[in-house]
Amino acid sequence: MREILEKLLNGKIDINQCENLLKANNLLELEDSVKLDLSRQNRTGFPEAIFSQGKSHEDLVLIINAFIENLDENSKDLIFTRLDDSKFKSLENNLKERNIDFEYNKKANILVIKSNNSRKKKGKVGILTAGTSDIPVAEEVRVIVEGGGCETIYSYDVGVAGIHRLFPKLSKMLEEDVKVIIVCAGMEGALPSVVAGLVDVPVVAVPTSVGYGVGEGGKTALYAMLQSCAPGIAVVNIDNGFGAAVFALSIINNI
Questions:
Q1: Is the pLDDT higher at 17 or at 110?
Q2: Could you report the per-residue pLDDT of 92-115, keeping only the tens digit for each?
Q3: DSSP label at 206?
Q4: In the Cβ-directed half-sphere of 223, how many Cα atoms lie within 13 Å?
């Protein structure tokens, strides 16, 4: 970046060339196989997230090392999604040796490498699950939302099979002034419709691959959420806690 700015100052490039070079400089290419976006937080309001499934140990180490080498006062967290426990254990010693601050959520299969730059909380997001089997997806939501600088208020296992459990939890979320509520549900996927019929904030529905028979794989929950008669619901793909969290952050960032 310094070299580019020096070229601009010395008149070797014009302002448009400088802008293009700075944009290109923000995308770091690692051995022709991985590209790390160092300015995603500034551009989108959300830290760089790496989808770990299908990546080799060597690829993940390259990314981590590049992130650490480029840390500065403007750096944000780096997030690895769908990182199973065995892959995390293969990286753990490397992280400890580099003396980097990190946190691994085994339920969500997410690793967060922290930059230690404090951020003011931007808003609150509510997270609900219909059952305990939906918790891994909800935990993915929670980690991503908190990584994006928002506070979470969450309650698990409050589905329609025991609907009385929902109302006090939902009431607390509204009292805390949540701006978005993310609802994770499998089986028949009814909980987002119930929630959307009771609140005046956007609801993001996450169908989970929890169910059997016609509900196997989460498609029944997905179809039910897409077909909901309650207005104000956005639906993401099956088990896509990450996408739901980023959508919620986009809403809050634009309030």
A1: 110
A2: 887 888 777 888 999 889 998 876
A3: E
A4: 9
Percent helix, strand, coil in the chain, to 5, is: 45, 20, 35
Strand ranges (DSSP E) for the chain? 27-30, 34-37, 49-51, 78-81, 102-105, 110-113, 124-129, 151-155, 180-185, 203-207, 233-235
Secondary structure E strands in 38-190: 49-51, 78-81, 102-105, 110-113, 124-129, 151-155, 180-185
Can you read off the two tokens belonging to residue 251?
A: 């809403």
Instruction: Convert 47-62 to b/e letters by CB count within 10 Å (16 or more is b).
Output: bbbbebeebeeebbeb
Specify the 3-state DSSP secondary structure of 81. strand
Amino acid at 179: K
Q: Tokens 């254990």 map to which residue?
A: 89
User: Nearest CA to 3 among 12, 74, 65?
Assistant: 12
Report pTM. 0.77
Q: Tell me, what's the pLDDT at 42? A: 56
Q: Name, in order, each residue with C-beta under 8 angstroms of 155's C-beta and a sequence gap of 6 or more.
A: 127, 128, 129, 169, 172, 173
